[in-house]
Amino acid sequence: MNILVPFDIQPVSERAVRATLELFGDREDVHVVATHISDAKADPARIAANEIESLGDNYEASVEAEVRLIEGDPSSKAVIRKAITDIVESEEIDLVILGYESKSLFDRVLESDTTERLLQNHEIPVLLVP
């Protein structure tokens, strides 16, 4: 099972990763792909990716964290939505886990119906972690 956890550098993202590992970390057949979507190689995002991968050291599931560079404005709902959809397709994702809180990056994305589009266009489950 391939699980996508998009992250930004916020506590809500850490909660989403921790919840993912608590729910699925004991399974060897699980591959967690934690992805920060950006238009630049940001050092804080790289540090967060390293920390996410180190969290996976205590679990059976494999954890891969990355900073995925995109073209376009990373604050654009459409750009983020497309990036998530591209990852779902290219990585053969089975489940998307999103951290969610007011005024977070994913709050803005969710307001633009990303969850609904993932469910309709890809028939993929989406789990929201507060």
UniProtKB/TrEMBL annotation:
Protein name: Universal stress protein
Native organism: Natronosalvus hydrolyticus
UniProt cross-references to Pfam families, sorted A to Z: Usp
Annotated InterPro entries: Rossmann-like_a/b/a_fold, UspA
Annotated signal sequence range: none
Domain UspA: 2-130
